[in-house]
Design goal:
With 101 residues, the chain is an all-alpha fold. The chain has helices spanning 8-58, 63-96.
């Protein structure tokens, strides 16, 4: 039979399969995005640590002392980045407002 529609349960199966495939793809994509984000964060932290280690050693510090101090240095660097970002945001906000004369 040409042009005949398949039974409705076949259409329902197809719709379920398509929905399952889309849901599976979305879950897989989300998982891959999260994995990439974690890898990017790990790479950033490794780079940050290695850069700080080079500066520490160049300044005459010892490797063992650096490893002991690294958590404090990392936290201080994070705190400073937050302060700097806040300062830049405030400066941008001040520069973008129009003066009322």
């Amino acid at each position: 039979m040409r042009g005949a529609r398949p039974p409705s349960n076949t259409l329902q199966k197809g719709a379920r399969m398509e929905r399952y495939t889309l849901e599976y793809h979305e879950a897989y994509r989300k998982e891959q995005d999260e994995k990439a984000k974690k890898e990017e964060e790990a790479n950033r932290e490794r780079t940050e640590k290695e850069s700080a280690r080079r500066v520490w050693l160049a300044d005459g510090g010892r490797e063992a002392n650096f490893e002991k101090e690294w958590p404090k240095l990392r936290d201080e660097g994070r705190r400073q980045r937050v302060i700097d970002a806040d300062r830049r945001a405030r400066e941008l906000q001040r520069s973008s407002t129009t003066s009322r004369i």
